[in-house]
Amino acid sequence: MGVGKGTDLRKKIAGVLIGIFIAVAVFFAVKDTLIKIAVEVSVQHVTGMKLRMSKLKVGILKPAVKIDGLKLFNPEGYNDKILIDMPEIFINYDPDSFFKGEVHLIEMRINLKEFVVVKNREGKVNLDELKMIEDNGNKKVPKEKNKSVPGLRIDILKLKADKAYYKDYSGGAAPVVKEFDININETYRNIEDLSALVSLLVVQTLAKTTITGMANLEINKLKSNLKNVIMDPSKIFSGEKISGMKEILKDVTSSFGESLINSLEVKENKEERE
Predict the structure, then answer these.
(1) pLDDT digits (tens, 9 = 90+) for 169-192
(2) Contact 215, 127 (CB under 8 A)
(3) What is the predicted pLDDT for the residue at 187?
(4) Is the alpha carbon torsion for 199, 204, 207, 208 positive or negative?
(5) Whether residue 104 has pLDDT greater than 80
(6) 217 neighbors 211 (Cβ within 8 angstroms)
(7) DSSP letter string over the chain?
(8) Per-position b or e across 170-197, b if 16+ CB within 10 A of its CB
C-alpha cells in the first residue's frame, strides 16, 4: 500500500469517527427535547388537552427520568388555565423495552400538587372535555379519539396528591370555590396504558372529594379503564394499621363490655328498689 493510499484511508476512518462522535453528541444534546415533545404530543392525543413540562432529564447509563413542572392545561373557554399541576415526577424504566417497540416503566412516582375541576360560565366542566369521557352518556366520543400509546406498561405507580379544587363560574359573579385536602399517598400496580394512568389520577382524586356530585360528572368510562389496576396490599393493610386496628377493636370491646355491665347493674338496682 502506498503512502498516499494509507493517508487517504486514515483520513476516511478519522472522518467516520468524527461523524459518529458528532452524531452521538447531537443525540445527547437534543434527546431530552425530543422525548419531551413526544410525551407532550402523546398526552394531548390521549386527553385532548395541552401538556407542558418545564424540564425533562433522561438518564441513559442510569435508566431514570426526572420531570419538573408538569402542567395539564384546560381547553379554551375556561377562566383557570391549569387542570393538573405536578411539580415532580420520577421514573425508573427498562431500556430493553424500547428495542421491542414498548415503553416499560418499572416504577413511577408522581407528586400531584393541585387538581382543579372548573365549571365555566356556560356550564361546561373541564373534565367533560377529556377524550376518554363520554358526554354524560348522550354523545359518544369517536373511536379514533380513544387510542392510547401502544405498548406502555407501568409496574408500580406511587401517587402523592395534596389538594383538589372545584371552581364554579356558572353563577356569573365571582366563582364558588371549594377546596379539598385529599392527602393521597398510595401505591398501584399493573397500569397498562396512558388512558389508565390519566383515569387513575382523575378517579382517585375525585374519590376523596364531593366534586363528582357537585359538577354532575359521569366518570364510569374512566373507571372502566382501571379494571386491571390493583392497589398495593401493603398500603391497605400494613403491619402498623393492623396493629392499630387491633387496639381500636380492643378499646371498642372493652368500652362495650363496661357499658353492658353498667346497664345490667342499673337494671338490677332498679329491680331491687321495686
Answers:
(1) 988 778 899 999 999 999 999 998
(2) yes
(3) 95
(4) negative
(5) yes
(6) yes
(7) --HHHHHHHHHHHHHHHHHHHHHHHHHHHHHHHHHHHHHHHHHHHHHSS-EEEEEEEE-SSS-EEEEEEEEEEP-TT-S--EEEEEEEEEEEE-GGGGGGT-EEEEEEEEEEEEEEEEE-TTS-BGGGGSTTS-BTTTBPPPGGGG---TTEEEEEEEEEEEEEEEEE-TTSSSPEEEEEEEEEEEEEEEE-SHHHHHHHHHHHHHHTSSHHHHTT---HHHHHTTTT-EE-HHHHS-HHHHHHHHHHHHHHHHHHHHHHHHHHHHHHHHHHH-
(8) eeeeebeeeebebebeebbeebbbbbbb
Task: In whole angstroms, give the CA distance from residue 184 to residue 162.
Answer: 7
Closest to 198 (Cα-Cα) out of 96, 46, 87, 64 = 46
Chain segment 239-259, per-residue pLDDT in tens: 444 444 444 444 444 544 455
Cell, residue 59: 438518564
The sign of the torsion formed by the CA atoms of 198, 204, 208, 212 equals positive
Say if CB 251 and CB 243 are below 8 A apart: no
- The terminus-to-terminus CA distance of the chain in angstroms comes to 129
The C-alpha cell of 181 is what?
385536602
- Residue 149 predicted with pLDDT over 90: no
Cβ atoms 187, 136 nearer than 8 A:
no
How does pLDDT run across 24-64, given as a tens digit for each residue? 544 445 567 777 888 888 888 878 889 999 998 888 788 89
The residues spanned by each domain of the chain are 3-235, 237-274
Cβ neighbours of residue 104 closer than 8 Å, sequence gap 6 or more: 93, 94, 96, 97, 153, 155
Q: Which three cell numbers stand for residue 204?
A: 382517585
